[in-house]
């Protein structure tokens, strides 16, 4: 028995070392640096000054506000659209593999590259989106250069970019539902709506819980989309700044790693709390 335990630890050792070096140590290091001031090569103990600074910094609260709004709006809307599209493809479309591949393409494409394309689509003067809106006699806002539209632009892009991963995972979950459930439902004359709400949705709850967790965490870590859409900035006057962009700015541009790490710790706690809440919520839904 002891020999087997030693062999098990031997096989687990590479993973444990990897996780320790690249996951646990950075968290502990960030927490320690949050109490230090100065440049990266000349850090010194600073107490709670970094936390006092970010709590009194309006830009930090704007970043948190934008990030929370982005998560609250983009995650549920993106998930609802993903469920609808996955169900339509699964139930109505014959060549499912082609559409799965088409939807999955954006997930394996660089966000920077897609963001550059969307920057032209969102362009207020010659963008495709405003061209279509004008054809429909609808208001055509300045998606990129109007500070009031910065967060909306990020949300629209975030919803679109989340569809790829969500749809592929949901399609896999739909295939795992026992087809006998639908056969029996047909025997009792159940409508398509009844089958969706009484069979499909309950069976998808574990998958939806997983996607919700992944999407919430991803939403709180949004950075690349902002960088790509606004050409390395966070919108006009930092109107589209997010928590991770704030951390990047303080660490790389301003050169205050202690402040950046203090913001990182706060963001980590927010993600932990948000994940805990949504897991409890999905658990209650699953029990019902």
From TrEMBL:
The keyword Plastid does not apply. It is a multi-pass membrane protein. Belongs to the binding-protein-dependent transport system permease family. This is Sugar ABC transporter permease. Keywords: Cell membrane, Membrane, Transmembrane, Transmembrane helix, Transport. The chain crosses the membrane at residues 9-28, 68-90, 102-122, 148-174, 204-223, 258-277. It is found in: Cell membrane. The keyword Plastid does not apply. It comes from the Bacteria. Pfam families: BPD_transp_1. InterPro entries: ABC_transporter_permease, MetI-like, MetI-like_sf. Residues 64-278 form the ABC transmembrane type-1 domain. CDD domains: TM_PBP2.
């Amino acid at each position: 028995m002891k020999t087997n335990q030693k062999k098990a630890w031997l096989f687990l050792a590479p993973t444990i070392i990897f996780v320790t070096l690249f996951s646990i140590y950075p968290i502990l290091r960030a927490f320690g640096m949050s109490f230090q001031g100065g440049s990266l090569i000349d850090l010194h103990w600073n107490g709670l000054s970094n936390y006092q600074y970010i709590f009194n910094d309006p830009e930090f609260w704007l970043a948190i506000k934008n990030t929370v709004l982005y998560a609250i709006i983009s995650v549920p809307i993106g998930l609802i659209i993903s469920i609808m599209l996955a169900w339509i493809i699964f139930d109505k479309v014959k060549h499912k593999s082609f559409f799965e591949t088409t939807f999955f393409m954006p997930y394996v494409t660089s966000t920077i590259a897609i963001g550059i394309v969307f920057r032209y689509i969102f362009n207020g003067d010659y963008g495709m989106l405003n061209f279509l809106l004008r054809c429909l006699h609808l208001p055509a806002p300045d998606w990129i250069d109007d500070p009031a539209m910065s967060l909306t632009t990020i949300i629209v892009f975030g919803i679109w970019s989340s569809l790829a991963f969500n749809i592929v995972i949901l399609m896999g979950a739909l295939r795992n539902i026992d087809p006998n459930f639908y056969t029996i439902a047909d025997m009792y004359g159940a409508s398509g709506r009844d089958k969706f709400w009484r069979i499909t949705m309950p069976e998808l709850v574990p998958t939806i819980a997983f996607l919700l967790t992944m999407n919430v965490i991803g939403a709180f870590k949004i950075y690349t989309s902002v960088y790509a859409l606004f050409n390395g900035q966070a919108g006009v006057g930092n109107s589209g700044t997010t928590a991770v962009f704030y951390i990047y700015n303080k660490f790389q541009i301003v050169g205050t790693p202690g402040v950046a790490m203090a913001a990182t710790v706060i963001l980590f706690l927010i993600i932990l709390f948000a994940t805990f809440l949504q897991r409890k919520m999905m658990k209650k839904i699953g029990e019902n």
